[in-house]
Amino acid sequence: MGFISLRGVTKRYGKVTAVDRLSLEIEKGEFHTLLGPSGCGKTTTLRMIAGLEELTDGELFINERCVYSASKAVHVPAPDRGVGLIFQSYALWPHMTVYHNIAFGLKERKVPKDKIRATVMGILEKLQMTGYEGRYPSELSGGEQQRVAIARMVVTEPPAFLMDEPLSNLDAKLRMRLRSELKRLHNESGATTVYVTHDQVEALTLSNRVTVMRLGLLQQDASPAELYNRPSNLFVADFMGNPQINRIDGHLTGANGERIFESGDGLFRMPLEGLETDVEPGREVALVTHPEWLETSVVPLEGAREMNVYTVLMAGCETLIFLHAEGQTLATREQGQSDLQPDQKVWVRVRHFNLYDSASEELLSVGGTGSSC
Ligand SMILES: Nc1ncnc2c1ncn2[C@@H]1O[C@H](COP(=O)(O)OP(=O)(O)OP(=O)(O)O)[C@@H](O)[C@H]1O
Ligand SMILES: [Mg+2]
């Protein structure tokens, strides 16, 4: 059993099903992220784990103890579940200084004064906030308040941290720095972390495991690499695109083991090499690639499609290039800076791809000649 175990967890608000029969095992020490678009049920799930929301149906276990069961009428209240919480709004005590905000939980536990002092000063140093201990929350920036909220949660050493979009109000630079601090704190504490975000890059960079949700339903529960390389359906593939995935709709033809993808507009024909599992000809499919799974050339390549450069977006360490041909746009990514110019002719070849069933939208197979990343 995982350290946190959800079994058929359902939450309904009147006619709205916010979380729909969610079953999930979150292992001890894991950094587990709930990821999905607005309204998919992430916060509701976290609040049910925390004990701030009752389940409509299902069971919840923390550290092998049943903390909620609709059928067995078990309901362990929030303070007795041993989890630390951080929400998007920082919720510090406004009338207490930074020092006393952080020390609060330790005082409640009657920790000796000198030990409290050492712990509070230690965590402030770790979060680069030494010197701020005498300030009140109203005298801090958003990022500083959030660091105090993190410090306050960490010092009581709960076996699990639950965090709901804790970095979403911060600017990009601070968000990146706090991400790395959160990851270190997680590793050092050994606590199990359940983290909520709708930012796929944040999920990939922080997590050991990610659960993608949509309309309250689990879509995929996987490692970040698996999620990026083998999204289980078109919704996850689209959601994991950064900035976007390429999707070409078409069908499969071929015989004698050879499989050929033909785009619906008849303009793109590609033998499918290295298919992991065979897919029978005749099927309507969507061929999906990340931008970096495409290869471009300024001279004709075998099996390549001729396209025109539409725009070149240089972002310093990499360049994103949008290509256009007959109603189809593809994005490709080059390391560093690109020499390509708008309206230039290029040939584009798919190095690696995922194949989805057009009707069910489920992953059928993966393939290609190179590795996926
Ligand atoms: N108290 C409530 N009463 C009625 N409906 C609710 C309530 N809380 C949440 N919902 C609905 O449940 C669904 C899931 O909400 P939830 O807050 O869990 O989404 P979320 O994934 O956290 O979204 P966001 O990324 O916007 O924070 C939404 O459709 C929401 O409108
Ligand atoms: Mg939310």
Structural notes for this entry:
This protein has helices spanning 42-50, 98-108, 113-126, 142-155, 172-189, 200-206, 224-229, 234-240, and strands at residues 4-13, 16-26, 31-35, 57-62, 65-69, 74-75, 83-86, 160-164, 192-197, 209-214, 217-222, 246-253, 260-263, 269-271, 284-289, 294-297, 305-314, 318-325, 328-335, 345-350, 352-357, 363-368. The protein has eight helices and 22 strands. A six-stranded mixed sheet has the order 7-8-9-3-10-11, with helices on both faces. It has two domains: 4-230, 3-Layer(aba) Sandwich (Rossmann fold), CATH 3.40.50.300; 237-368, OB fold (Dihydrolipoamide Acetyltransferase, E2P) (Beta Barrel), CATH 2.40.50. Helix content is 23%, strand content 36%. By secondary structure, the protein is an alpha+beta fold. The two termini are 33 Å apart. Bound molecules: adenosine-5'-triphosphate and magnesium ion. Magnesium ion binds next to helix 1.
Key attributes of the depicted protein:
373 residues, Rossmann fold, OB fold (Dihydrolipoamide Acetyltransferase, E2P), 2 domains, 6-stranded antiparallel beta sheet, 22 strands, binds magnesium ion
Q: What's the structural blueprint in terms of helices and strands?
A:
Layout: E1 4-13, E2 16-26, E3 31-35, H1 42-50, E4 57-62, E5 65-69, E6 74-75, E7 83-86, H2 98-108, H3 113-126, H4 142-155, E8 160-164, H5 172-189, E9 192-197, H6 200-206, E10 209-214, E11 217-222, H7 224-229, H8 234-240, E12 246-253, E13 260-263, E14 269-271, E15 284-289, E16 294-297, E17 305-314, E18 318-325, E19 328-335, E20 345-350, E21 352-357, E22 363-368
Bound molecules: adenosine-5'-triphosphate (ATP) and magnesium ion.
